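Mods, move this if it's the wrong board.
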Amino acid sequence: MTFVLSLFNFSINLSFVDSWWLYLILAILISLLLYYYRKIELNKIANRQEIELKRIQAEKLAEINIEKSKFFSNVSHEFKTPLTLILGPLERLIENAKEEEQKEELKKVRRNARRMQTLVNQLLSLSKLESGKMRLKSRPENIVKLSRLFLQSFQSMADDKGIKIEFESDAEEHIVYIDTLKIEKVTNNLLSNAFKYTERGGKIKLSVQSLTKSEGADLKEGVEIKFCDSGIGISKEKIPFVFDRFYQVDELQMKTNLGTGIGLALTKELIELHHGSIKAESESGKGSTFSIFLPFGREHLQDNEISSSVNHSSDEGDELLNDDYLFVQDVAPNLDLGKETHIDNELDLILIVEDNDDMRSYIKSYLSPSYNIIEAANGKEGAEKAIELVPDLIVSDLMMPFVDGNEMTMRLKADERTSHIPIILLTARSSMEIKLKGLETGADDFLTKPFDSNELLIRIKNLIEQRKNLRILLSSHIGNASQIKLINESTGKKNSKLDELFIEKVSSIVAKHMSDPEMSVEMLSTEMAMSRVQLHRKLKSLTDHSPSDLIRDIRMLKAAELLKERELNVTQVSYEIGISSLSNFAKTFKEKFGVNPSEYH
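Not the wrong board. Structure tokens:
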């Protein structure tokens, strides 16, 4: 402003007072200067307001986080009381149970109550970490020895799942300051994830080695613990988010969305509580590696982070972490899914595909009195067993590792060996979008967990009855594929196009080789590129005919057609359809049509 006034005073003293245009230029210049001055002042005010608004928002966000932590803590504590009242009486019931079957059912309840307890404990642990109430109580420990012991505790699980585990270290001893219970929790989380997403026959490796790590201008010496698995892996674009709280893989993919998004977030914060770091490396289909770095020495620790006691006089946080370890030990009984299953030929065969052992056992307990049951632990195994054994119906979970329920359904519905099999999908997600996606893949029905077991039984019964009614109609029109459309319309239950093509293909192969007396089930199965078992179960399911019955009936239908034309005699008709024995032809024809060939018109 001083500059503007000086300029104005100078202009008055000019000799060119009568130069009106000079005053105009000065007026414009002053206006511009005032405009920009005002704009700068307004920007300053806006910046101050924006800073104040951000401060208020930050305070509100901090308040919301505090309230959220209080909420999680309060709700989690409220869960602990009923869980205690469930687990306490359960222990007594298990001890007093006289029947082994009843004891196993009660153990199943206990395992899942402890699983819920684990989730509650994880929420409480996150709440404690966020509020700064969880304390580090570290002591110098041999991390090599501890890591080996932690891995060995998973040996029985490895044996059950057919997974090879390995331990490797560059020395017998590496001393680091750690809180043993918290590092035990970290190890259990990472190993549990590795086992969850590694297929039978895969490998899990835990290695410990010394390492010098650069952090900016500093070099830190410490120990690196690596957890490597040959599992399904994580896509590279999702790696940056795996340690975020409550993060899960895209809901629509459903392949690895099996957890709560708490475990890895808690793992990261526990490691950072030790002033260490954790990183993940992975690629879809190529396994995962989680690497933990813990610094040597105690310079990075405060005095209150070092415990002088030999025993952990655990505070509430340690107690919670210890509870989780109990859950790892209480695993479901070893279920050998590859063993021979006794099949009652009078009962329909149902395949249960579910990665949770207890859920699979629960469904089986309700279905086994009325059906033959075979089991699979994931979609990949389920698809293989469905193709091999051709069940009458499949009950499958939607969210599974390796291959999820949607992908398994698409594979089976696109395969002519299994396209006819009704599939019921089960899921804990109730959104309409997920249901529609499941039905679009070809699933015949959809149930949301938790479901009523009686409802599941009724839906299974209805689907199998519909298939049986369709078989009865198809069996009366075998050899006449053109009538399949009419059958579909009359039943209101349409066969898939793939099933219609399958029946037409079988009929055409039989017609092609009809005059060959050597035509057999083996020849038909070879032409169809299927095993005898697959062909038998597929035809039985669609037409209620075995392959040999089908060949016989198509021959008899052709014989009836030739006899009606009256161009060939009975003996010529017999040879024309590949039956060299006239007596066998006459007997079979009479069984089919109720009259001798010579009497048929």
